[in-house]
Structures are given as C-alpha cells and as structure tokens.
What does this fold into?
Amino acid sequence: MIGKLSGLIDWKGDGHVILDVRGVGYEVMVSDRTLAQLPPVGQAAALYTEMIVREDLLQLIGFPTLIDREWHRLLTTVQGVGAKAALAILGTLGPEGTARAIALGDTKALTAAPGIGAKIAQRVVLELKSKAPMLMAKGGAMGAEADFDAEVIEAEAAAAPKVAPKRRAAAAPVVAPSAAASADALSALLNLGYAQGDAAAAVAQAAGENDGLETSGLIRAALKLLQPQR
It folds into this structure.
C-alpha cells in the first residue's frame, strides 16, 4: 500500500498530476482544490495517497492532508458514493465544509458538488451523522499538510535515525461521559475554524440547554448556535 508520495511535479492536468519520485512517475488523481494548492511543474510536492484496486483499475488518489484522506475513506462507505464522488465532495467543500454540512444536515451544500444529487446527499447525511463527529474531533491532529519543501522531501527519503524508546506515559484519568462529549465537541468546532471563546461558549450553552446529548448531537446544537442569525 502506498500511503504517501514525495517528489517533483512532472505534469499537471485536469484532475491528475504526475509526481516524479526518484525517476518513477506516479499518476495521481486529485480534486480541483488540491490541484490549485500544488506548486508549479518542476517544484517539489508531496501527497498522501489512497490506492483504488479493482479488476479493471489500479488508481492512486492524492490528498494534501491526512484528514482529507480520512474523509474520503468515510464518504466512500456510503452506498452509491464512489471514489470520484467522494473526491468531488471534498473538492467542492473541503473537509471542514463537508463536516459542517453533515453535522447540520445541509444536503443543499452537498449537492453543490458535481454529480451529487439530492438522494445521495440525504444518504450521506443519514449514514454519516453519527460517524462524522469522531473524525471531526481529531481533525486538528491529522490536518497537517504534506510538505512541499524540497529539502524536507530529501530528508524524508534518507534513513531515519534510531531513537531510544520513550517511557509509556501514565494512563489518563477517566473522564465522565458528559465532559468527554463536551471536550470532543469543542475540539471539533476548533478544527472547523471557530475561535476558542465562541466555540467554548456555544458548547457550554448547548450542553446546558440539552441534557444527555452525546458528541454528535452536541456538535450539531453548538453549530446551530454559531450560525449567523438572519
């Protein structure tokens, strides 16, 4: 399994790039959003990758961050959403917009992606509304972009030095379910780009107004409070 490619951009086309990795050119399918983020031909780039293997196809799909790749994997678990459709959603909304649309049940936002109709959008919301919060909560830790610096890419290719194993940290104390849900909801909102103060206030208000909410419900309630009032 190829999880990441680092090299020089040899060619950029409609929805594809060729990445030259030490003389081997890998053709990688990317979204329009990712294509726009990549540097010009001849410069160094790196992409996290997912390999699609079928009887009639062997295809690499490239992503600028690990969270993009994880969202793509989650989207393709929905019946009727293939690799291209998932890439279209991410290319239109990005991981943050996709997360927000699912949390709020905003099917109209999902149908803005090419090839995504109302029925598929509804299915995405219904099937992922309970699964998305956990991915949203850990988005910050996985959202670092693949490095485009040539010196860093060369360093990655070199053998990594051996490091003495670290001592295992003491186990964290058990957190009450309500506190854990609030912490996860706050983390998810911060990963979506909301300010610390606004996110914390929304989570606290949502928790106070809705007893017993789990993480997914708490995120949805907080997002509604954060939406601009018309």
User: Anything to note?
Assistant: The mean pLDDT is 81. DSSP finds eleven helices and five strands in the chain. The chain has three domains: 4-65+146-156, 66-139, 177-223.
